Amino acid sequence: MDAASLLTGLLVGALLATAVTLGVVALVSRNRPADEGLEPVHESLDHLHRLLAGIERDRATAHGELREQMGTVGQTSALLRQETAALVTALRTPHVRGRWGEVQLRRVVEVAGLLEHCDFVEQPSGTNDAGAGVRPDLVVTLSDGRQVVVDAKVPFTGYIEAVQAEDVAVRAERVAAHARQLRAHVDALAARRYPTAFRPAAPFTVLFVPSDGFLTTALEAEPGLLEYGFARDVVLATPSTLLALLRTVAYSWRQERLARDADQVLEVGRRLHARLSTLSGHLIRLGSALSSTLTRYNETVGSYEGSVLVAARRFDDLGVAESPVPTPPPVEATVRTLRPTELPLPGELPRPSELSPRDDGSRPVERDGTTG
C-alpha cells in the first residue's frame, strides 16, 4: 500500500467519523436547548478541522518526498542503463575484451597467492616448433620446473547478444553462436602449440574463461565442449576452476620449500652431532688427565710427607727453625665420568631409578650429585 492510498483511507475515515459525530450531536440536541446543543458541535468541528489540516500537511510532505525519491530512482535507472550500454559496447571491442580477461586472470593469480610462492611471467614471447611467434597471457612455473601456459583471450560476443535477446528463439540461436565461437577459439588455441614454445612445459594449454556464466551458457548448446578441448590439449577453466589449479601450484611450492628447509635442518643437525662428538672426546681426555694429575699429586704428597718432612721436623725439634714446615693436604676430589643419559620425553617425569633418596627429606638428589 502506497502513501496516497493510506492518506485517502484516513480522509474517508475522518469524514465518516464527522458524520457519525454530527448525527449523535443532532440526537442529543433534541433534548437540550439550542445554545447548549450547538456548543459541542462547534468543538467537534474545530477538532475535525485541526485533524484534517494535520492530515493534509502530512500528505503533502509524504507526497513531496515520494516524488523526490521517484525522481532519484528514475535518474539512477537512466544512468545505469547508459553505463550498461557503454559497457556492452566496450566489451564488443576485441582489445577491451582481451584486457578485461587479463585483469580477471591477474586477480585470480593474486587470490591464489602465487606472488609469494610461484614464479610467473605475464605475456612472455616465444617461438613454437613451427617457427611461429606466440605470446600467451600468463606462464606459471611449477615446483618441478615445468610451465603451464594460460591464455585469456575468449570471444563472448554471442553471449552478450544472447543476454540482450528478448525472443526465446533468438536467444537460442545466439547461445549456439556463442558455443561455436568458443569451439573455434579452442581450435585456434590448439593450433598455436604453446607447450612447444616454453620448455619444459605441461602438455596442455589453459583457456581462461573470465566468467562462469560464459562457459555454462556455451555448455547448454554444446555439452561436449569440455571433451572437445581435452582432445586437443586445451583445458577450459573458469575463475573458480583456475583458482583451484593455481592453489594446487602454490601448495606444491610450499611443499618444495618445506622439503628444502628439512634438508637444511638435517645437514645442520649432522654438523652439530659431529661437533658434539669431538667436544665429548676432548672432555673425556681432559677428565682422564685431571684424574691422573690428582693421583700423581697425592702420590707426591705422600712421598714428601714420608721422606722429606720427617727430616725437616728434626730442625723443629732442635729449635733451629723459626716456624714449623706446613704439611700439604692430599686432594680427595674425584673427576666425574661422562656417560650417556636417557632424556625423558616432553611432559614425562624422570623415572624413580634416576633419583637418589632425599638428602634432607625435602629435595631429591640426582645421581650426579646436583639437586633437582
Would you kindly provide a brief summary of this structure?
Helix content is 64%, strand content 9%. It is α/β, with parallel strands linked by helices and 372 residues long. The two termini are 84 Å apart.
Account of the protein in words:
By secondary structure, the protein is α/β, with parallel strands linked by helices. The chain is built from 9 helices and 9 strands. It has a 5-stranded mixed sheet with strand order 1-4-5-6-7. A two-stranded antiparallel ribbon has the order 2-3. Strand 4 (138-141) and strand 5 form a beta hairpin. The longest helix has 80 residues, at 239-318.
Helix % is 55-70%
Mean pLDDT metric: 76
Task: Kindly estimate the percentage of residues that lie in beta strands according to DSSP.
Answer: 5-15%
Written as H for each helix and E for each strand, in order along the chain, the element string is HHHHEEEEEHHEHHEHEE
N-to-C CA distance: 84 Å
The strand order across the widest sheet is: 1-4-5-6-7
Largest sheet: 5 strands, mixed
Structural class determined from secondary elements:
alpha/beta
SSE topology sketch:
Layout: H1 3-29, H2 34-91, H3 94-112, H4 114-117, E1 120-122, E2 126-127, E3 133-134, E4 138-141, E5 147-151, H5 157-164, H6 168-192, E6 201-208, H7 212-221, H8 225-231, E7 234-237, H9 239-318, E8 355-356, E9 365-366
Main traits of this protein?
elongated; 372 residues; alpha/beta; single chain; 9% strand; five-stranded mixed β-sheet; two-stranded antiparallel ribbon; disordered C terminus; 64% helix
